[in-house]
């Protein structure tokens, strides 16, 4: 179903390239990108040579988005297989060295020179959702309205408990590794687009960032598109889980745009409160308690998800998606997110290799192999 009056959505997914037997990272992204382009789906190089990124086109409904994401994973996996690798959708490397070479492009070499170990120890994969918001001032205000809900999205999407052969103790260890960058995690509150631009300019001038593209906050006005970009999520184990997160993000942005249009003031939430809520979501995911940043109260994970669903219900109804999203969220709460699945698999098998092998299969769930 098409909804031309609703904003479009697009998704970027980052993946790891791993050895099919050992699960160790393979530094073959240049060759994989070249082969995928020949197969009809351009991939992007990511910072580490064991990473690639897919980009969906502009989509107007969840069905179309799902089709494009399935195709992109299929092509990326096929290209990887032709170079002896498997495509893996996890937020961190379950096994591998502490450092990895950066991809062979000028930008990533500049990052390695400027940021050293921080760039060389990357190897983490996220899911970035873009929602069309044409006006730049509105984009900044949308970020103000949406930022309290980022920890709930993180809890739902956590998919990186294992790192370098051990359980990190966190549902999203990617979030903790990512927080080492100077501009990452929950964003501050901005009074205006000018205030946002002034802070970014200061960060570039003092050499904390190469440029605006290195603004890595969990939600931001895109540096190159007329969109709000939500970057809080780990890469999802399956396409259907990606579509769920993307639909929630789309509805959250629509809800925020409506609030801006009404002249509602964004919630007055301090940055430290939001950081603590995000850290708790990274640690516990869908297990245990979390912090409701609006009230500073500890609440069960299921309650946080209920509150988010209620917050975006009108937008989901406008998209014709409420019943589907409600059912999908119930399944996630009952079955667990990627972090819970990884831990259960590790506990049952006592093998990182088995986790990787099973996770590469889940990465391609519902994907149809290319004809020989």
From TrEMBL:
GO MF annotations, alphabetized: glutamate-cysteine ligase activity
Reactions listed under catalytic activity: L-cysteine + L-glutamate + ATP = gamma-L-glutamyl-L-cysteine + ADP + phosphate + H(+)
Record keyword Nucleotide-binding present: yes
ATP-binding as UniProt keyword: yes
EC number of the protein: 6.3.2.2
Gene3D superfamilies: 3.30.590.20
A Pfam family assignment: GCS2
Enzyme kind, highest EC tier: ligase
Keyword set, alphabetical order: ATP-binding, Ligase, Nucleotide-binding
PANTHER family: GLUTAMATE--CYSTEINE LIGASE 2-RELATED
Similarity-based family: Belongs to the glutamate--cysteine ligase type 2 family. YbdK subfamily.
Function, in words: ATP-dependent carboxylate-amine ligase which exhibits weak glutamate--cysteine ligase activity.
NCBIfam families to which the protein is assigned, alphabetical: gshA_cyan_rel, PRK13517.1-1
Name recorded for this polypeptide: Putative glutamate--cysteine ligase 2
């Amino acid at each position: 179903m098409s909804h031309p009056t609703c904003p479009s959505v697009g998704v970027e997914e980052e993946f790891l390239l791993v050895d099919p037997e050992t699960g160790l990272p393979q530094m073959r992204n240049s060759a994989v990108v070249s082969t995928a382009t020949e197969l009809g789906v351009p991939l992007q190089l990511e910072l580490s040579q064991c990473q690639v990124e897919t980009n969906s086109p502009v989509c107007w409904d969840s069905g179309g988005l799902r089709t494009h994401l399935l195709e992109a994973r299929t092509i990326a996996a096929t290209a990887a297989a032709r170079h002896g690798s498997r495509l893996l959708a996890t937020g961190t490397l379950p096994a591998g060295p502490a450092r990895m070479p950066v991809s062979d492009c000028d930008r990533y070499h500049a990052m390695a020179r400027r940021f050293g170990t921080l760039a060389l120890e990357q190897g983490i994969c996220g899911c970035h959702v873009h929602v069309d918001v044409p006006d730049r001032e509105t984009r900044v205000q949308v970020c103000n309205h949406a930022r309290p809900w980022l920890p709930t999205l993180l809890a739902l999407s956590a998919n990186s408990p294992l790192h370098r052969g051990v359980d990190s103790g966190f549902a999203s260890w990617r979030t903790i590794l990512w927080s080492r960058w100077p501009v990452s995690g929950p964003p501050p509150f901005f009074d205006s687009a000018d205030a946002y631009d002034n802070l970014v300019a200061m960060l570039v001038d003092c050499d904390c960032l190469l440029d605006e593209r290195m603004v890595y906050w969990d939600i931001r006005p895109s540096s190159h598109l007329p969109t709000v970009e939500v970057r809080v999520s780990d890469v999802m184990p399956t396409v259907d889980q990606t579509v769920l997160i993307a639909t929630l993000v789309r509805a959250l942005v629509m809800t925020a745009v409506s609030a801006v249009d009404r002249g509602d003031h964004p919630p007055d939430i301090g940055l430290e409160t939001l950081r603590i809520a995000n850290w708790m979501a990274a640690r516990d995911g869908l297990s245990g308690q979390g912090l409701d940043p609006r009230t500073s109260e500890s609440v069960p994970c299921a309650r946080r998800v209920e509150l988010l669903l209620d917050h975006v219900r009108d937008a989901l109804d406008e998209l014709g998606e409420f019943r589907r999203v409600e059912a999908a969220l119930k399944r996630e709460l009952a079955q667990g997110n990627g972090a819970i699945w990884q831990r259960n698999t590790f506990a049952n098998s006592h093998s990182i290799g088995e986790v990787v092998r099973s996770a590469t299969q889940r990465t391609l769930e519902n994907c149809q192999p290319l004809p020989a």
